[in-house]
Design brief:
By secondary structure, the protein is of the alpha/beta class. Helix content is about 40%, strand content about 25%. This is Polar amino acid transport system substrate-binding protein.
Amino acid sequence: MFRTVLTSLLAVLVLCGSAFAAEKTLIAAANPTWPPMEFLDENKNIIGYDRDIIAAIAEEIGMKSEFRNIAWDGIFASLESGQANVIASCVTITDKRKKAYVFSDPYYEVHQAVVVAKDSAIKKPEDLKGKKVGVQIGTTAIEALRKMNVDIDLRTYDEVGLVFEDMRNGRLDVVVCDDPVARYYASRKEGYKDLMKVAFLTEDVEYIGFVFSKDNAELAAQVNKGLKAIRENGKEKAIRNKWLGE
């Protein structure tokens, strides 16, 4: 009997220890196809703005950080499954998403950007009429296009990189995505920057936040403390300059 009780007690202690360890690590889900916010280096490691921001926040609040590569169509489910306790993947804060999840304070602002060929005459929403427009599925680019109220040939893709590839190969006239990603392809990425330009940005501002499950508001509060700290000590500014040139 004593051995049984002791075994049970040890099992409880192990479980508690595991939970404590998990609470000490920000396990971030990211879809690393969104440069320069999150993407893969030559060794398949996740790098980018979001990666460095999470690492800096974790350091400020006495936690470790770990990133996991999760496809966009499964990224929100990763919170429920326990694969991650935070999503750090350039997620726009929307009223619909706030009904299901807890968001951190905004850590970045974006507009939707319209990317076209260098020699394109497209300059405003009305010019998109009849054009083949590509977007990543499940992103706010679709809502931005809906608001433009222009008749287009909309084509959706699993990854934004595939959208830009099709445009480079002449199968699309336009790509719409977050402006940091648009600028990365149009001004920095080899094989693309000499072929494309940002035609215009949408007027609406989108606020980007880290995402948590509804039962993890305490962790969100801790992350907000860390975010405030790196803004005050200059670490956020240094990371912006590194990845975004701001």
